[in-house]
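To the team - zinc ion complex, inputs and output below.
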Amino acid sequence: MAPIRAEIGKTGGKLFAWDPVNAPMIRHWCEAMGVVNPIYTNAQAAKASVHGAQVAPPAMLQAWILSGLQKNNYPEGSTKDNPYKVLQMLEDQGLPAVVAVNTELDFKRYLRMDERLYYTSTITDISEEKATGLGVGYFVTQMQTYYSVNEAGGADECVGSMMFRLFKFKPTHAPKPIEEAKGGASAVPKIGRSTPGISPDTQFWWDGVNQGKLMIQRCKSCQTLRHPPGPACPECQSFEWDEVQSKGQGHIYSFVVMHYPEVPPFDHPNPIGLIELDEGTRLVGQLLGLKPNEYQIGQRVQVEFNTFNDGTLTLPQWRVVA
Ligand code: ZN
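Output:
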């Protein structure tokens, strides 16, 4: 823990907000949060208020500096240091799980339109090792301090801060393998996979799967491929269709790794991919071949047909290929 504890008290570089304080983001945030105070969304009402102009909701503070959908993706001029480095270091020590504990926000003043913000991050505390009902680990306290850029060139102004505390731990309850049911009176009933509901529209697809073929429905009128199968073409409304066999190759368009709840009969963590076939249609299936944390969007995959439920159910699954 010594190198990790050495991070306590260090303050990282500036991480800038993507956008200056602006009315559209405020309006979206107020809509999402159900905030109706007109000083945030109505310039005229705001002008007549004690503020004299439109202001941002104080509780929106963190929203201004979120990195977006890509992790640690901040605008130019921001530090390249990872503000969550300590959490990564703890992960490397075998503490993969995280749970948010508590947070405290402190607002110095209201923010006005066009202010440019950044924040710096400091690890203020790492607890002794603690054993909890969830597992053994460390409480990590981080302080984010928010500043408004002084465009005139003077000192930047601190406008607020956020303390947040996480528990980084090794879970007590590791995923349990599903016990194989054994014969005899004491046998635990084995939970199988849900069986598909097969309709006249989807019969051809399951017939294909049972023969180790991945079929795609095709409109006879306009040739558009579609999945999942359905009675009519969404492009031209034609009811005429046939099918083509996919090469069974594509890439991970998106994916999730399901950790909880641990639903039998699946092993967990359970990686599930949205696969885009080279033919263009997409379908969902389990991912194979890598550790749960190694899957990435864009990886090439190859279909593989595997049987379940004592050989009564065949499903296409997706193996990552080099
Ligand atoms: Zn069509």
